[in-house]
Each structure stands twice: as structure tokens, then as C-alpha cells.
Write a structure and sequence with these properties.
- The structure is a homodimer.
- By secondary structure, chain A is an alpha/beta fold.
- In chain A, helix 1 packs across helix 3 and helix 5 runs parallel beside helix 13.
- In chain A, the strands form 3 sheets. Chain A has a 6-stranded parallel sheet, sandwiched between helices. A 4-stranded parallel sheet of chain A has the order 7-6-8-9, sandwiched between helices. In chain A, strands 10-12 form a two-stranded antiparallel sheet.
- Chain A folds into 3 domains: about 45 residues, no CATH class; about 160 residues, 3-Layer(aba) Sandwich (Rossmann fold); about 130 residues, 3-Layer(aba) Sandwich (Rossmann fold).
- Chain A is elongated and about 85 Å long.
- Chains A and B meet through helix 4, helix 5, strand 2, helix 6 and helix 8 of A and helix 4, helix 5, strand 2, helix 6 and helix 8 of B.
- Strand 2 of chain A pairs antiparallel with strand 2 of chain B.
- Chain A binds a DNA duplex through helix 2 and helix 4.
Chain lengths: ~375, ~375
DNA sequence: CAAACTGCGGAATACGTTTTCCCGGCGTTT
DNA sequence: AAACGCCGGGAAAACGTATTCCGCAGTTTG
């Protein structure tokens, strides 16, 4: 495409960029024709003129001004992506998928980080909507804003993030308020022709890509049962963390399908972090872990924390007690023993989100990304 | 701010968004005054008028059209960020820092992923430049051949940069070509008033944030010497990987400062990956590791791979042989034993990049991010 | 053979801002 | 008292592009 040899000296007037006007003059046509020639409009332009315009554009190294195009067209060739935290591998994997698919479609990705705050998320959507992007992708927090009637059992060690999002029973005013505002904002945007896609967030009237947490946990449970395990413990996060809830539900169902029941005494609620996993494991070990053959932690980071805690308590993970996680993060293979987990193709989820956004019709559509069990040394087959 | 009860019906004409014109009419002033009132220009506007405009804007829920502003102003309030791969924690940490600082300054981040290809990187810069961002941040790959070193026209680069092409770096011509084009592109952009910042990339006539690899490695070497270690091995990557080269140089210097010399036989070149570390450790173990007390791998992932290899060979890391890495990635504390490393505050590097971009003068400036040695169980003190 | 129609170029307008320029009022200075 | 700033308002000109509308050929149609 680019011709390297003939020095690409852009005959530049140094101060400003070269505009469509310049191209038109160079090609000896009007800017209308130039515009039509360059981005093939509904109208046709004579082939000879078209090629002259293209030649002029190449010679002058013309680059269209996206903002000007945006003003004229009323929309921008961009995708607005809101994530909780770029540095979190969970989100960055999704972001990678979104970016890849967007770039393939010639769209630029603008990214914003919401932190843990729904408030901030709302602000960002407001700002981004101002940008008139073609698509808004929300890979929001995994926190459930719409806690139904389930009141937290006790106020003990609730995840800080969960606390910020509509805590307590009933509809917390602040929580549902910003949530409603967010939905309203997005609906207006959609009504104005924008596309909205949510990743891993159900129950909203938008296109959605969900992760098959339930199914993956179900299969994991069956696989572990098949490997000979019978006595399980589960480390889970607060009920308000939907991901955790789904995984526990799927896991329990899977066990039940294998004829195994889960003892409530060994279902430990803790934080959705490495520290939470460590804490839960410490408590379990303290209490005597003899009755437990294997621990399922609802995330890999928790599982990894748990393994360390067990080791600190004198138990060898994978020998004295097996451990399984969920997510299949990269370091799952780096820990010793390598961690059994459920792979979540987040990158694909991101790509799928873009596919939904670009291809879909007006009716809200939904796609589920399937997960895959990966057995490793942390859960050796029991004889 | 938002009034919840009195339904925020924005008096909307549903089809378009509300424009500055509407605000002006509502406030009974001209659009010029409205514009001045809203984004405080050099000109003053009477306080009464100003507040009326603000009130009108709030009432109508006015949002400025960034693209239109961009057209009028000639630049966009955005930061263009080019990274190698969002999913890589190295880049996503930098991205997090950049995003944080950018948002604090009211700028939106548009992100693009270059993969490993300098070609693609050039394309992206071309495209992004079209966007007229205020700042372009390049957090490129760490490989020399692709993006770093070798001054394009005058061979002024002394820093061993030129030597980097030595070990069969086949793609010399194509590389420097796209490299020169990239530099040219950025220089034009800069000449037009844009700010360019490179992260972890020296020898280019742009603002730069570098990581103190040399110093960190130097201090690590001294710390390890202080802990009683005397017989070292080093796992390094190809000479063309500048990061590796710097770390090895610093480490060697640090040893020398402690009166220790490094035996060439135990400097093993391998790939800059987990697999490379594994391979090198396997070879070393095979050859008999008795003469070595400790291995320094130039990156944590290599070190982690090496630990696994040692374990597979029957050596217990931290007891039979100590291991130290570099980067202090998250999983450094999750492996057993926890890995001694050098913390690299990448997030800060990203923030610093923005600070450079926003505050700096016209002359290329440079900031070095310092690193910090973190001793852990993989290198117990020798008695 | 006139009339309608088609294909395409160009002038002009629109898009939503910012910014320049002009203008009138008012307080201060000679 | 006239001249001279200064302050702030508004009309209008940018900014760079897409698109509507008009007109001119050349072609088809009745």
C-alpha cells in the first residue's frame, strides 16, 4: 500500500494538516466530489475523478478529521468501553477482546475506568455519551446492584465494594437511584441510535454477553466427584456478588447431580480477594480440616490465597487437601501445585460483545460464553 | 445536583441532543455568551448572565459535543495510548496509571493495541494522529529491533544500541524503515503542537519515562551479596532485549561492587518467557547446580519457570537453590517459596508519563522511575 | 422530436462549537 | 467636556466534513 521508495515528503504546509479542501484543489474537483470519492457515499462519482482524488489524497498524505466527520455525520466511529479496573486481569482480558474486534471493524476504542463506584460509572457514561460513540460497552463491576430480598445474614466482613452498592435490605435509595439513572441514560442513548452491550450483567434491557458461571461450576463439581472427591468445602463471597452466587449455585447443583450433598458448616463466606481466601482457609484449618477432602473457592485468587494459608498451617495443598478455583488466571499454572480451575474465555466474551453490537437488531439479544474445566495437580484423582 | 422528584424530563426535542443554541435561547443570551459562560474563556461574562446560562444548561441537561468542540478548537481533549497488549499485566498496569492521571485531568483515553508488530504500531499512530489527540503515549514493546535504539540518520547513539543489531537480527532494513517513519510521524505531530511521551524507551527525541532497571538490579545484587550469597548464575534474554541487557549490566555491576565476579559459564541466554526460564533451569540442573547458590532471572516469569524446573529436577527452590527475579508481578507472592524480586511501579510510570505530557516544556524531558528490592523466602539469608 | 429521465459535478448549507471583530456603554483621565 | 481606555455583548466567521439541492449534459421514452 504505502510506497516506501519515493520519499513520502508530504508537500506539507507545515502549520496545519491537509484538509479535504486541499485534496479537492489538487485533484481539480470540488470538495463534494472529493468527499464522495473518498468515502463512497450513496452517490456515484466518475471513476476517473475518483482515482484522481485518491491519488491526490495519497500524494498529500491526507487524513480525514474524525471530529469533523463526527460533527457532520452526527456520530463517531468509536466504541466507548467502561471497565472496573484495567489493571485487573479480568477486565483487561475483556478489554483486549473488545479492542481487537473493534479495531477489526475500523473503530477506535475509548476506555474509561469506573473503579468500584457505580456513581463514577454513571458519570462516565454521561461523559462518554457526550462523545456520541457508536457503541457503549459496559464491563461493569460484578456486584449486583439489585439485591432482591436477600438480606445479608450478618454484617460481618462484607466486601467493601458490596457495601457501597445498595447494602442492606430493601431498595437502598442511593443504589437504586444511580442504577436507575444509569439505565435511563443508556436507554436514551439507545433510543438515539446507539448500541449498548453489557458484559457479564443480566436483567437489563440491553444486549448482553454472559459468562456461563453456573454451568462451569456444575461441570467442575461433576469432574471432581468423578475424581473421587466426596467431602467438600466451599469458599464463597457475599451474596451480593452475583458471580459468586452463580458459581456456588452451579457447584452445589453439580454435586447434587453426583449424589453428593454439601455440608453448610463448610460453606464459608469471605471476601472476594486473595486475602479472603487466605482467611477462610486459616479458619478452616484451625477448626480442623480433617473432615474436608477438597475446597472449592469461587475464584482463583481466593484459591491461591487458600493454598498459602493451608501451607502455613502445615497442610500440603494437593496432598493433604485439594483445592480448586475458578477463572483460570495465568498464575494458576505457576503456583505449586498447579491449580485446577475453570477457564473463562474473557477475551472471546469481549469479541462477542462487539459482534453483538455491530451485527444485532434492535431487540435486546443475549449470548452466553461457555467455560471449560481444567484439571491440574491441585486436585489429584483420589484412589 | 439532579433533582429526583420533578421528573428530569429534559424538555427534550427527542430527535437531537440539546445544543448550545438551545441553552443560549433559554438563558436569553447569545451563543457566544453562553459558550464563554460555560467554559470560562479569556473573556469575562457578567456574573448574572453566567449563572443564568449555567442554570439553563442544567435545566436542559446540556452536554457539549466534544467533536464539535474539537473542530472549533483544533484539538481533542483525549490521550491516545498505544500499548503492546492490554491483556499483559505489564501494559495494563501502565495503562491504569495513564488512565487514572488522564481522567484526573479531564481527558479521555483512547487505546489501541499494537500487538508485537512495529508495522501495526506505525499504522495506529497514523490513525490516532488523525484523531488530533492532545497527547500520544507510546508504551511499546521492550524489544530493541522493533522500536528502540539505533538513531535513524546520524549514528550518534553510543549506548551499545548500535551493537544490538549484532546477533542475527535479520529484519534490520524493514525495522529501521518503519521505525524512521514512526519517528517522523511523531515529530510532525509534535511540531503541530502535540505532546509525545514514551514509556520505557530511550534514545528518542521525545519525553520519556524510563524504568530504573540498572539501578534496581544493582541494588538487588548488593542485597543478595549482603545476605551471604557468593556463587551466582544469571538467566538472561537475548541481547536485543534492552530490558534484559540493562538488568544484567546492573546486576553484574552490583556484584562487582560487592567484590564478587560472575562466572561466564553460569550466564545462560534463553527466551524472555516462562518457558525460557524453565529451559535454562533444566539445563543448569542437568549440568549440576552444585557450584551455584543462587539464580538471578531477569524477569519474574522466567524465575517462576525456573523454580518449577528446579523442583522437577528434585531441587527445592529456596533451600537447595535460591532464586530471584525482577518485576514483582502479583504472582511473585503466590508461588512457593515467595519470590524475591524488584518491584517496578508501572502504574506510577503511567501516571508520570501523563504528568510529563501535561506539565512539560517543549524540550524533551526524561523521568526515571525508581525500583525497589523486595526480599522474600526464595532467597533466605545464608549464615 | 420534444419531454422526461438519469448520472454526476459543484455551490451552498448544515453540523455544534469557539473565536474574532465590532459596537455601545461607562468610568476615568487630560 | 472631549477623548480615551475597559468591559462585556452579539453578529459573524471560522473549523473540516457530509449532504442537499440545483443545474447541466447526455440518454431514454412516448
Amino acid at each position: 500500500m504505502d510506497e516506501a521508495p519515493p520519499a513520502p515528503v508530504p508537500a506539507a504546509d507545515a502549520r496545519g494538516s491537509v484538509t479535504l479542501h486541499d485534496v479537492a484543489r489538487e485533484a481539480g474537483v470540488s470538495i463534494a466530489t472529493a468527499s464522495r470519492a473518498l468515502n463512497g457515499s450513496a452517490r456515484n462519482v466518475r471513476t476517473e475523478n475518483a482515482s484522481r482524488v485518491r491519488a491526490a489524497a495519497a500524494k498529500l498524505d491526507y487524513r480525514p478529521h474524525p471530529s469533523a466527520q463526527a460533527v457532520a455525520r452526527g456520530s463517531t466511529p468509536t466504541v466507548a468501553l467502561v471497565v472496573g479496573d484495567v489493571a485487573d486481569p479480568y477486565f483487561s482480558a475483556i478489554a483486549a477482546g473488545v479492542t481487537q474486534a473493534a479495531e477489526a471493524a475500523g473503530l477506535v476504542v475509548t476506555m474509561a475506568v469506573a473503579g468500584r463506584s457505580p456513581q463514577r460509572e454513571l458519570e462516565l457514561v454521561r461523559t462518554l455519551r457526550g462523545q456520541r460513540p457508536r457503541v457503549i460497552v459496559l464491563a461493569g463491576t460484578r456486584i449486583d446492584g439489585t439485591t432482591a430480598s436477600t438480606a445479608p445474614k450478618d454484617g460481618r466482613a462484607v466486601d467493601g465494594a458490596a457495601a457501597s452498592a445498595a447494602p442492606g435490605d430493601g431498595r437502598a435509595v442511593g443504589g437504586t437511584d444511580t442504577r436507575g439513572a444509569l439505565v435511563g441514560e443508556l436507554e436514551e442513548y439507545q433510543a438515539a441510535g446507539g448500541r449498548v452491550v453489557m458484559v457479564s450483567q443480566r436483567d437489563l434491557p440491553f444486549d448482553t454477553v454472559t459468562i456461563d458461571n453456573t454451568g462451569g461450576a456444575h461441570r467442575l463439581a461433576r469432574a471432581l466427584a468423578g475424581a473421587g472427591y466426596r467431602r467438600f468445602a466451599v469458599f464463597r463471597a457475599s451474596e451480593s456478588v452475583r458471580t459468586s452466587r452463580d458459581r456456588v449455585a452451579g457447584f452445589t447443583a453439580g454435586l447434587r447431580a453426583a449424589g453428593i450433598s454439601l455440608d453448610d458448616r463448610f460453606v464459608i463466606e469471605t471476601e472476594f480477594t486473595r486475602g479472603g481466601g487466605y482467611e477462610a482457609a486459616r479458619k478452616l484449618a484451625e477448626r480442623g480440616a480433617d473432615e474436608v477432602e477438597i475446597v472449592f473457592a469461587v475464584s482463583d485468587v481466593m484459591a491461591i490465597g487458600a493454598m498459602t494459608a493451608f501451607r502455613d498451617a502445615g497442610l500440603v495443598p494437593g496432598e493433604d487437601i485439594a483445592v480448586a478455583g475458578f477463572d483460570d488466571i495465568d498464575s494458576a499454572i505457576d503456583v505449586t501445585p498447579a491449580l485446577t480451575s475453570v477457564a473463562v474465555p474473557l477475551r472471546e466474551a469481549g469479541q462477542e460483545a462487539m459482534r453483538l453490537a455491530l451485527g444485532g437488531g434492535p431487540a435486546p439479544d443475549a449470548v452466553q460464553i461457555s467455560t471449560r474445566v481444567v484439571l491440574r495437580e491441585s486436585t489429584p484423582a483420589r484412589r
